[in-house]
Design goal:
The chain is of the alpha/beta class. 35% of the residues lie in helices and 19% in strands.
Length: 390
C-alpha cells in the first residue's frame, strides 16, 4: 500500500502537490468524525498522510504499518516493540516521520495537528504552514497525559492557524492565538438523508420493539450512564438503542435492562440503516469537564436523518440547535416528559426548518473556508521576509 501511495504523489502530474501530514490521537478506522471528513476533502487537492499514535506489539524491531484510506490518503501506524521507553518511542517516530515525508515530493508541507503530544517527535519539522485543529479540550478527558497542557502551549506558539471544534472552545481559547477561528460540527447531508427513505432494518436491531430512542457515538466518560439507567427504568415501554464502541470506562458499569440495547460500534456507512428505524434520537451527555466545550457532530446528523432530538444541556447545543427550536433540552427532572413529547410528534414535523438550518453546514463549506485561511496564512508568511529584507 505504501508503494502505491508513493506512485500517486511522485507522478509527473502530482509532483507539485502539497503534502498534508496529520498527527492524530484518533485511529482513522475508529469512529468516522471530524478528521475523516476534513482530510478526505483535503485529499482531493493534495496528498495526505495520517500519522497515528503507536501500537505496541511483540515485534523484534520497530516498523511502520501502512494502509490506504483512498488513493491519496496514506495511514501510518508506528508499531513498536513491547517495553519501548518513551524516549525511544519518540526517537523512532521522529525517524519514521522524516522518512515518510522525505520520500514524497511535494510543493508545500502542511503540518496538521489534532494532538499537541505529537510535538514530542515533530518539533524538528519546519512546515510551510502549521495548523492546530483543536476539536476538543483534550486536557479535560479521562486519562489525559499530565504534560498535555504544556505541549498545547508549545503548539500554539508554533501554529500559524488554530481552528476549534465549536464556539465554546473558541471562546475559551481565543485569547491564546492571533489567528484562531471556530468551525463547529458540520454535516454530510446526503448521507444522513438516506435515513428518511425506507430500508431494511439491520439484523441486530430488527427484533427490538418500538418505540425506539437511539444514540450513536463513542461511549465513554462523557455519557451520563445514570441518566440512561433512569430513562430505561422510568420508561419500560420505550426501547433504548445504544450504538458505539466503549472506551476508557469499564463495560461492566453500563446499566442493563430489558429495554436497553448496547449494540456496539457500527460503520459510518451503516448508520442511516439504523437511524431510519428509530422514533427519536437522544444525546444523554453528562455535564462535566469533559463535555464543557464539546460540539457533538451527531446533533446535525440526527436532524438530517429526520429524527426529533433530545439532548442534555450541552452549551453549544443549547445556544444553537436549542435556540432554533430544533432540539429539546432536558435533564433528569423532565427527561421522560420531553422524550414522550418527541415520540408523540410526527417524525417529519420539523424537516423544512431543519433543512434550512443545515443548508450552510456542509463539511465541504467547512473545508473550503479552512483552505482559504491556509492560503492567506501562507501569503502572509511570504510577505514578512520580504518586508524584513527591504
Amino acid at each position: 500500500m505504501e508503494a502505491a501511495f508513493g506512485r500517486v504523489t511522485a507522478s509527473k502530474k502530482d509532483v507539485r502537490q502539497d503534502l498534508l501530514v496529520c498527527f492524530s490521537h484518533l485511529r482513522w478506522n475508529f469512529v468516522h468524525q471530524r478528521p475523516q471528513h476534513i482530510l478526505t476533502l483535503a485529499s482531493t487537492k493534495q496528498a495526505v498522510i495520517y500519522f497515528e499514535e503507536p501500537v505496541f506489539e511483540d515485534v523484534p524491531q520497530p516498523l511502520m504499518r501502512t494502509s490506504e484510506a483512498s488513493p491519496n490518503i496514506l495511514i501510518v501506524a508506528p508499531v513498536l516493540p513491547l517495553g519501548t521507553s518513551a524516549a525511544k518511542a519518540d526517537a523512532v517516530q521522529r525517524r519514521f516521520v522524516q522518512q515518510t515525508i522525505s520520500s514524497r515530493p511535494h510543493r508545500r508541507l502542511i503540518a496538521w495537528y489534532y494532538t499537541p503530544m505529537a510535538l514530542r517527535f515533530t518539533a524538528h519539522l519546519e512546515p510551510d504552514i502549521c495548523v492546530y485543529d483543536c476539536m476538543d479540550e483534550l486536557s479535560a478527558f479521562k486519562n489525559a497525559p499530565p504534560e498535555l497542557q504544556q505541549m498545547e502551549k508549545a503548539l500554539l506558539r508554533r501554529a500559524d492557524l488554530v481552528f476549534t471544534g465549536g464556539l465554546s472552545l473558541f471562546e475559551n481559547k481565543r485569547h491564546l492565538h492571533d489567528a484562531i477561528y471556530p468551525f463547529p460540527s458540520s454535516i454530510d447531508v446526503n448521507h444522513f438523508h438516506k435515513a428518511r427513505k425506507p430500508g431494511k432494518d439491520p439484523a441486530d436491531q430488527a427484533g427490538i420493539p418500538h418505540p425506539r430512542v437511539g444514540y450513536f457515538g463513542v461511549i465513554d466518560e462523557r455519557l451520563d450512564v445514570d441518566l440512561v439507567a433512569q430513562a430505561a427504568e422510568t420508561m419500560p415501554d420505550v426501547h433504548f438503542v445504544m450504538l458505539g464502541p466503549v472506551v476508557k470506562i469499564d463495560p461492566a458499569y453500563l446499566p442493563l435492562a430489558e429495554n436497553l440495547h448496547w449494540l456496539g460500534g457500527k460503520s459510518y456507512l451503516d448508520l442511516p440503516d439504523y437511524l431510519r428505524h428509530w422514533d427519536a434520537g437522544w444525546m444523554p451527555f453528562a455535564l462535566n469537564e469533559a463535555t464543557r466545550f464539546i460540539s457533538p457532530t451527531k446533533t446535525p446528523e440526527f436532524l438530517a436523518a429526520g429524527l426529533p432530538v433530545i439532548s442534555t444541556a450541552i452549551v453549544d447545543v443549547v445556544r444553537s440547535y436549542g435556540a432554533a427550536g430544533l432540539v429539546e433540552i432536558a435533564d433528569s427532572g423532565d427527561l421522560e416528559a420531553k422524550l414522550r413529547s418527541a415520540l408523540s410528534r410526527p417524525r417529519r414535523m420539523l424537516l423544512q426548518e431543519v433543512d434550512v438550518y443545515l443548508a450552510d453546514s456542509s463539511w465541504e463549506r467547512t473545508w473550503n473556508a479552512m483552505a482559504a485561511h491556509i492560503e492567506r496564512a501562507h501569503e502572509r508568511k511570504k510577505v514578512v521576509p520580504l518586508r524584513r529584507s527591504a
